[in-house]
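Running co-folding for zinc ion.
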Amino acid sequence: MANQTMEWANGFLDYVNASPTPFHAVRSSKERLEKVGFVGIRERDNWTKELKRGGKYYLTRNGSTIIAFAIGKKWEAGNGMALLGAHTDSPALRVKPKSRKFGESGSFLQVGVETYGGGLWHTWFDRDLGLAGRLIVKESDGTFVSKLVHIDRPILRIPTLAIHLDRQETFAFNKETQLFPIAGLAATALNKTPADNEKAKEHEKEEREGSGKDFAPLAAITERHHPAIVTKLAEAAGVSAENIMDFEILLFDTQKACLGGINDEFIFSARLDNLMMSYCATEGIIESLKAPDALDDETGIRLISLFDHEEIGSLTAQGANSNLLPAVVRRLSTLFGNADTSATAYEETLIKSMLWSCDQAHSVHPNYGAKYESDHRPAMNAGPVIKINANARYATNSPGIVLTQEVARGANVPLQLFVVRNDSSCGSTIGPMLSAALGTRTIDMGNAQLSMHSIRETGGSHDVEHAINLFSHYFSRYSELEDKILVH
Ligand SMILES: [Zn+2]
């Protein structure tokens, strides 16, 4: 593998290994953006004085969605934007609001979990699972802050049943009662952690008699969850357990993502869908800004938007089907305008802009070849896949394909086309909803991978570089190509 190809593939491994949850993915992107001069701004502030031509900025919503953009030095209100969207979330198991459970007459410590998104849940059995997410912590001055936490140790496990005890041909299981992690043995917990034991006894006593402390509308976090787990979370975040007011914690596979295959042609990893596109979007916009004069002749704005909640339909405050992207584009569209130019700047910007909706695609599977349409069989390491669907499950249309092809030609990046069989179900993504909300030209695309929504997916290691090159060229060349393909 060429050095640069390898570097990008390894860069992705670092990104995905540091990003077990959407909160961490946002942080991973933020760190890379800050390093090259992107400055954090807030939705709640007035941007008029803050933003400058030639400036680079980012903002987050809920800590799990991030938008980053660079303003061309020749930007005028109403100009077009090169937009690129992806998503930060993946199917996962999440700790329930009250998770402190026991199995087998109290001898197993178990943790109640909820399914998030459409995971291939059978792949979560017999994996070494860690915990990560965000804590809301009470500070000494009475304010509450959010702190990320990442316990990179296998403290949970969902064991399968031995084949000797269960001869079922196909693996079927109940998602409430059998997809249910164990976290330890009560006997060990009692013997080895006397402090926890004391605390637990104290909590039980308090529950019976009342603590005599202030009224508490909800039980303490150490009562709703195993105290030992709360203690581990507190230690990992460097806070004290009593100050954790609430948390959003996901389970993840502690096995690190890695290169694989005889010639390192694969990436074996969790969350390829869609941290692969989140990573390439981040590095793509950064690459496009590398030259010191990158924004000198730029008339537009280059923007990436990495959304949470795609896997559950996007209809949330930080999802793609929210007001977030329209609101940001509207605020930017009127920048440096006057009363006259600003009046219809938003509508002018939308129609001059384009959105690349980037989400992973399906590589052909050698053992299930019949599931794929005969002439549309995307391969790994053969470049990004443009997704097309006559029923608009994908937003791609001809002007979009032609423009993307022009960008790819300049970048020397191969492209592929994908359509599902008429007798098959089809996925969807953020492209259709955003194109409807914005009215901009939109294309759906992504790198080809196997086993989408498994806890350990397979992708192509060369495709990281393909996507970054393509995205970087898109950002650099969009303003120049924009008015060459007009369909009124
Ligand atoms: Zn996806």
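Result summary
The chain is about 30% helix and 25% strand.
The chain has a mean pLDDT of 94.
Job closed.
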